[in-house]
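Run log // design_07
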């Protein structure tokens, strides 16, 4: 049983919803990432989604695009990201870590080599935005062989055939994109999300994490009543950008305050 599955089962037994924050590895600088990962856990993160910098982040809005640019200015690579996870695991053996990114860096590394390296440092899952399940057999086999979960995105426009493929080939959880658009979009409608999540419940056997557009505690509260996990990204990354020219303490202070807001809102929803 993977760390992710164990975490979801433990949370379900407690009647709790997972909080999964996203940060871009190497942002605001390469020396900050591991410290920020530990901070997120200390403020209530159940899992961490760690973005792998890539030059063409097609699913991401301007906030995360700028974060990727900041990381790439420091030449942060896939190998660097794996090293961050290795160092993180020296103090934290339990918090699941999901790498989110794009296929090109992984393909350059080689599927088998990447999967083995990711497993060896303590990565739990990979979400590769631009690798659809229908075209990913060799890739999936490498990930599965290394014991890595395969997380897929689904959206309001995902067809039934794709949902079937995701349910068959995915593991860990499914990342539901709660609106039409890129990360950081703001037109979140709880009624629409509820309708779509109910539809997905009848077609997917995996836990459902809801992300995109969750900017504040109110939105997290609403989404926690619908999904198994609430995924927050741009709201945190924008705080890193706002404090990027300060010392790490200011970044951690801002992130900690926002994480406390999200955690409290989710806990309030779980208590109802």
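design_07 sequence
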């Amino acid at each position: 049983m993977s760390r992710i599955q164990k975490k979801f089962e433990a949370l379900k037994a407690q009647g709790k919803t997972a909080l999964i924050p996203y940060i871009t590895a190497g942002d605001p600088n390469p020396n900050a990432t591991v410290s920020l990962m530990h901070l997120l856990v200390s403020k209530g993160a159940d899992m961490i989604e760690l973005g792998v910098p890539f030059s063409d982040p097609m699913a991401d809005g301007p906030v995360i695009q700028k974060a990727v640019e900041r990381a790439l200015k420091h030449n942060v690579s896939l190998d660097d990201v794996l090293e961050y996870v290795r160092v993180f695991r020296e103090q934290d053996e339990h918090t699941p870590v999901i790498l989110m990114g794009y296929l090109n860096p992984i393909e350059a590394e080689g599927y088998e080599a990447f999967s083995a390296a990711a497993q060896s440092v303590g990565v739990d899952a990979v979400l590769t935005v631009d690798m659809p399940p229908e075209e990913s057999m060799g890739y999936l086999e490498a990930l599965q062989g290394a014991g890595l979960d395969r997380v897929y995105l689904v959206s309001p426009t995902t067809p039934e055939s794709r949902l079937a493929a995701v349910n068959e080939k995915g593991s860990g959880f499914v990342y539901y994109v709660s609106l039409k658009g890129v990360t950081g979009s703001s037109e979140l409608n709880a009624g629409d999300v509820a309708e779509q999540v109910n539809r997905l419940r009848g077609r997917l056997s995996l836990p459902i994490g809801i992300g995109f557009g969750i900017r504040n505690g109110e939105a997290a509260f609403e989404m926690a009543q619908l999904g198994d996990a609430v995924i927050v990204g741009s709201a945190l990354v924008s705080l890193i950008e706002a404090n990027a020219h300060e010392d790490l303490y200011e970044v951690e202070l801002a992130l900690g305050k926002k994480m406390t807001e999200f955690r409290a809102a989710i806990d309030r929803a779980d208590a109802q």
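Strands lie at 18-24, 48-51, 97-101, 125-128, 149-154, 174-177, 208-211, 229-232.
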